[in-house]
Amino acid sequence: MLRISCVAFCLLTAALAQEPAPSLDLDTSVAPCTDFYAYACNNWQAQNPIPPDQPGWGRFDELATASDSIVRLILEKYSAPDPNRSPDEQKIGDYYQACMDETAIEQAGTAPLRDEMRAIAGLKSKDELATLVAKLHRQAINAFFRLVPRQDLHDAAQMIAELQPAGTAVPDRNLYLRRDRQTGALRKLYREHVQRVFELLGDSQAQAASEAKTVLAIETGLAQGMPDPTARNPPGITYHKMTGRELAALSPAFAWTGYLKTLGLPSGSTLSIEETPFFAQMNKILQAASLEDLQVYIRWQVVHGSAPLLSRAFVEENFSFFDKTLSGTKSLPPRWKQCERLTNSALGDAVGRKYVELAFSPQSKARVEQMVEAVKNALAEDIRTIPWMGPQTKEQALEKLAAVTSHIGYPEHWRDYSTLRIVRGDAFGNFRRAEELEFQRQLDTIGKPVDKKDWPDPPISADASYNDQQNTITFPAAILQPPFFDSAAGDAQNFGAIGALIGHELTHGFDDQGSRFDARGNVRDWWSAADRSAFEQHTQCIANQYSGYPVLGKLKVNGQLTLDENVADNGGLRLAYAALQNILAIESPAPPTALTRQQRFYLGWANLWCQNRSATYSRELAAEDSHAPGKWRVNGVVSNMPEFQQAFHCRPKAPMVHRNACRVW
């Protein structure tokens, strides 16, 4: 039985009593049972072409842009020098002002890189490499690999340092490894891009061409050690705890003692190593490459990681390959948008605090928290009654669900930027100092108990997440805006939208990865073998279903790459529907010409995924994105739901009726 407090029930149903219909522009020339995505999104797509500074355009982009506009007003207000500004107001205003001061940035040229380039040129042996890499990691330049704090997989109450594969500028490892003609052409364009960047640094054309080949060779070697993104390894399989001495035995060509000392970590520290084959491969590269070649690679890493705050020639060249070539974006975003996002990245909580004051009320926070409880209750009931899960696994699943916590809107405690020096007119220095402060903040958590009140993302992030080890879902204020959440709308629309995303994130705690963590966040297989097998049979149905959906031409959705997200979409919408029905209990008759609440619920879901994408961007995402295209996030889910078919009176053979309906949750 659903257990929901009277206060929560009354607040949720209060909106229902005066429930306005969502603002919809439906393409009624398409029957919802034929193509629900087209019915809901055709008119939106026609009215929302891809902006020239974007590779694609969807409701998430629309949401982020609305938040950007609010943040821009905040930053422009505080960018004017004013002795009455608070310390945080001064920092966000002056960071933004310095970034917008393109004249000063152009005059500086490559001078901000001078110290780093001298340090690279001054390396006398490979033994000195580790100390320099540690200094670069402090500035978020992840040469070779990255170090991050994370919860210990087998002692989730403690933070540990983890080393992860990194060091390639292109995020898709397959660009380095595939041997088909199209990928080969992209590799050539990438090499030419690297060459042009070295020329911008002042190198001759011949020297820059040779350097570009060196960079590509080293990055290709690193990519060879990286895991296949479609591999579905259980957590812990790639996890290895090692001492510095054991790490040195795995990768002796890198002076790990000097690296750890420079970071301020004890030489006897125990570290988590993700993907030991990568570090063995890195060792081969370090042994085989000359010192001169390694210096070329590190120079590239520094300039690539610094491009957003260098002169316009670097910004445009970086955009030309990574946005225009790889994603199909036609033009650079306006300077204000570039600087607004850089300021958010550097001072997310300071900006977010101002954003929350303007855009997210305590009443909205309370309402979303109540929706979380309603969807959690629906998932609890689903676990109790689901036929493929045995009683012992159900008991532990319910224990884990009860332990789920949520971050809604904004943190209880805001981050402290008092030690961060932000100077008007020093865009590059501000950028570096902010990166170093954040790295040190994260470094300071290592070896300490986990702070479960610390947020993974600032309030201005238009995204949501589930943390396996903290067993926490996070919904920042920026995603809790229309059409995802509308404080003026009724329950049907909101449960179809943000309610389904709440359900989506909750199911991640019980999917192929999340189910390997117990209620405390430790890696532990608490499922019976029979339950695991049954779960995999049900998820394989979804993998097969989505693998048949086209993206472009013969290119189809990768059902394995997108499996966890597709399972979460299907489960999230079902759970939100169950939560809504529990609250509505009995729906009052709707006027003959009006949409029913059930229909508005499904339209709430469809409206989240309306999108337009360039062909280039679609191909890029098909190779690396764990989410299916918007059309299949809508049609793939609703075609599995008899409740949808009842709501829109679909005939049994309608295209939106999946003959062999898949269901996990």
Strand content: 5-15%
CATH architecture annotation of the domain at 112-309: Orthogonal Bundle
Uncertain regions spanning at least 5 consecutive residues: 1-22
- Counting helices, strands and paired strands, the structural category is alpha+beta
CATH class of the domain at 112-309: Mainly Alpha
CATH fold node name of the domain at 112-309: Neutral endopeptidase, domain 2
Span between termini: 17 Å
Mean pLDDT over all positions: 93
Strand tally is 11
Instruction: Count the DSSP helices.
Output: 27
Describe this structure in words.
The protein has 665 residues and is α+β, with helices and mostly antiparallel strands. The chain has 27 helices and eleven strands. The strands form four sheets. It has a four-stranded mixed β-sheet. The longest helix has 24 residues, at 362-385. It is globular and about 75 Å long.
